Amino acid sequence: MNLTGGGTVAPALRVWRPEGPLDVHGTLGVLQFGPRDPAYRRTRDGALWRCSRTPGGLGTLRIAVGPAEAGAVPEVEAQAWGPGADWLLRQLPALLGAEDDPSAFDPCGHPLLHELKRRHPGLRIGRTGLVMESLVPSVLGQRVTVGEAHDAWRALLLRYGAPAPGPAPDGMRIAPAARDWAMVPSWDWHRAGVDGHRSATVVRAARLAARLEQASALPPAEAAARLTAVPGIGVWTAAETLQRSNGDPDAVTVGDLHLPNTVGWALAGRERSDDAEMLELLEPYRGHRHRVCRLLRTTGVRAPRRAPRYAPIDYRGM
Question: If DSSP codes are grouped into helix, strand and coil, which group holds residue 78?
Answer without folding.
Answer: strand
